Amino acid sequence: ISGASLYGLYKALEPILNKVVDKAQKELREEFVFIPWWHNNPNKYVYHIDPQLRERMYSYLKTDDVLKKISVHVVDLQDQAETYRLLRKIKPKIIFHLAAYGAYPYQLDEKEIIDTNIICSFNLMQACLKIGFDAFINTGTSSEYGINQKPMRESDRLVPVTAYGVSKAWGTLYGGYLALAQKAPITTLRLFGVYGFYEPRDR
Questions:
Q1: pTM of the complete model
Q2: Distance (Å, rounded) from C-alpha 119 to C-alpha 83?
Q3: Which of 53, 71, 87, 164 could bond to 102 as cystine, CB 3.0-4.6 Å?
């Protein structure tokens, strides 16, 4: 699982993550790969975590069942060589690519959008192609369609009107290209308005 948007969860759990990593690697039963790209400059991406939700997350990760199934790996997805080196080491079979920047109104830095949604996606897909995998689930967005006055269909033309929409459309198209040209098992799920537990309150 990759995801810049998981930073809030990471920060909330940071005091115990070091212990989690050591214990999980010793007792590993199932591979869970957490690959944030923001670790070189984390202070830019602090999300509000409700205190009650933080306590729930603490309780959840402290349970033995979770600790026995978690292995945490940190790598900068913008670093192509390091990304490949990590994936070659852990050899994940199923990849959920959730890393994104630009989905929130305050995420307006277009360079960050390109670096996260295009460069990181390219590096991750290329590394996976080299090591082999069973399934790569990429995540798209409704922003790929642009502005519409009617319900959208998967076959509708993509006319993004934001840098974020353009960058996510690239990921969808590039993943589709690899699926066709190299028969890579890459699928994009184009998600609409996702929200849930541990999200910021304004989500």
A1: 0.71
A2: 12
A3: 164
